[in-house]
Amino acid sequence: MKHLSRLFSLGMLACCTLFAAACSSDDNETRQPGDTPAPTPDTPAIHTVVVAQDGTGDYATLQEAFDALPVDGEPHIVRLRPGTYYEKVTLSAKHPRVTLIGDDAATCIITYDDFAGHDDGRGGTLGTWQCQSFLVDADDFTASNVTIANSYVNSLANAAVNKDTQAVALRIEGDRAAFYGCRIMGYQDTLFGRGTGRVYLRDCYVEGNVDFIFGSSTMVLDRCTLHVNRNNSVLTAPSTPADHKYGIVCIDCTITCPATGETDFDGTKFSYFYLGRPWQNAPRAVFIRCEEPAALRAEGWTTMSAQPELFAEYRCTGDGATSDRLAKRANAPHRSGSTPRACIRTTGRDEIQKYLNQQNQTEPIFKFSFSTTGPRSIDGTEARVFVPGPRGADFSRSKRRGDAWRIRGISLFLRASNIATMILPKIRVLRSHGQQAIPDLDAVQLTEEFRGRPELTFTEDTTEAERAEAICPTGAFRADPLELDLGRCLFCGECARVAPRNVHFTNDYRIGSPTREGLILHDGDTRVAFDPEQVRPEIRRCFRQALQLREVSAGGDASVEMELNATGNVNFDLGRFGIGFTASPRHADGVVVSGPLTANMAEALEICYDAVAEPKILVMCGTEACSGGLFAESRALDRSFLDTHKPDLWLPGAPTHPMIYIDGLLTLLGRKKRD
């Protein structure tokens, strides 16, 4: 209790400090989403280019500007001057951290008119996922004050092609994409979140008709206007992956549509629309505190090709959310039958709690953390807790200044509160597991039985050394000249057994190297050299504080893979250094390869590595990965991957001990030095 009391005091001190710091901030520091941060002596100006059709900028088209951006992992700003840019734009995965800023969404327009079924120029036709006007394939993209549109109209006038064809305006494949004050306009399938990443729209206008917000991404539309432009339309069509908690979430949005009886662009009198229908996988769509017009069908939702995992409304208002209509939706069958369950009102908190952070019993707050200048997340895993203001608030610069200190103060206070709630479970875990076994990595001493870095000693009599060379199963040991290649070594100890005067294995685990040649030890070497000059500068610049890696077992026997898994247990706790593993290469900063690189994994390895955005890290982990090990001469291997890709870190071992892996990564990142 004494320790808990101290911890509570420290937590309250941190809360007060953060709150005071926020309240004392100068209002002049308040910035709109998308504003360029002012440079300081410690933070140089962000690289910025200007796109202008009239030739006054750096480029005349947006695609030219994107293609010319350096591939360096640094943030870049592209400013778009007024004009209608008729072009099909792609921001590739190699250009993360790009911010696109328009002067005004009404005058800065990016548009194209492709559609599904259109000739692709190669003897085929475009699919839905290929017909977009704007593709965001990169992570950490931010846009503000621009219009992204597809001008192809799926109307009766186009019946010769397909009056119901898809024509995507914006397709998002990357993670952590954010849009502020933008207009996303089209007809069928306007906004397509095709990846498994996270997308955030705030104060945006989204227009379309059939399934015009759809896909597998986690998408949050915050205080947006959602305009239905055709009769018998459907707002959302989620295809949420089964392992995702969230699908499409609309919070504090206003839904608009033509007046009932008014003739829409298709020549049909407008009558009704639906909130959504389940497309694929485990669809989830939730409308929270949204204003729904009377044209919304009483049943609210309709059917498609899957059963919904969760279709819900929470405290919605308007003529489309009257009590009698909500009662019909709440009593509809769920996950079976013809109509999905749809409504959860104030008292129905059983499933809606997955989307709401219950700060109190009367006004839950949706947890979605987003920042235009730093890490962003959707479920409180990073950065800040954003607290929405009153509905319909004006978020222009002049209106924001007055409340800036209050909003930032509350946000930081809640952030400190969240930290406190995270600390107590951590204490319980540590108490149940006992004291962490390795609190200081610099002081680690492995057991004497552990075979780590070998020491070689030359003798005039080479009989024992020659015998050791003869029995080495991988050719790692050589008698003349005396050397031992750790990249081939199985650490079996046979060479030390037959040539004890020439070879002695120490328990030193610091045996990683940035070069393959660095793994070859000679007579008198007392350490494995780690030359920092061999480390690419962008590695330490971009990944020093945080690193996420994707592990690929290219024909491995699971031994190295098990040791890599152990780096996350309570003893080693690799996560305390901001280093971990991720399942998706699109969310990774690099790839860790284990196994001898078999031919049947060659293509998969190449695809995985290519999916990681630049700059990225490549780590070869284990003797098999470094050289092929016992299988080096096997025809089942294909190690041509290493002919075109240079690894940044070589980690020997059979298997690689967790300390070899941790020490190698921290040394590569410049967070440890090799004596």
What does this protein structure show overall?
The chain is α/β, with parallel strands linked by helices. The protein has a domain at 440-675: Rossmann fold, CATH 3.40.50.12280. 20% of the residues lie in helices and 21% in strands. Strands 1-2-5-8-11-14-17-20-23-24 form a 10-stranded parallel β-sheet, covered by helices on one side. It has a 7-stranded parallel β-sheet with strand order 3-6-9-12-15-18-21, with no helix packed on it. It has a 7-stranded parallel β-sheet with strand order 4-7-10-13-16-19-22. α1 (2-23) runs antiparallel to α5. The two termini are 42 Å apart.
Summary, kept brief:
This protein has 675 residues and is of the alpha/beta class. Helix content is 20%, strand content 21%.
Helix/strand layout:
Elements: H1 2-23, E1 47-51, H2 62-68, E2 76-80, E3 83-86, E4 89-91, E5 98-102, E6 108-112, E7 134-136, E8 142-144, E9 147-150, E10 170-172, E11 177-180, E12 183-185, E13 191-193, E14 198-202, E15 205-208, E16 210-215, E17 218-222, E18 225-228, E19 233-238, E20 248-251, E21 254-256, E22 273-276, E23 284-288, E24 310-314, H3 323-330, H4 349-352, E25 356-357, E26 365-366, H5 397-433, E27 454-456, H6 463-471, E28 477-478, E29 483-485, H7 494-498, E30 503-505, E31 520-522, H8 537-543, E32 547-553, H9 559-566, E33 579-581, E34 590-594, H10 602-611, E35 617-621, H11 623-627, H12 641-644, E36 649-651, H13 658-668
Parallel strand pairs: 1-2, 2-5, 3-6, 4-7, 5-8, 6-9, 7-10, 8-11, 9-12, 10-13, 11-14, 12-15, 13-16, 14-17, 15-18, 16-19, 17-20, 18-21, 19-22, 20-23, 23-24, 32-33, 32-34, 34-35, 35-36
Antiparallel strand pairs: 25-26, 27-30, 28-29, 29-31
Helix pairs in contact: 1-5
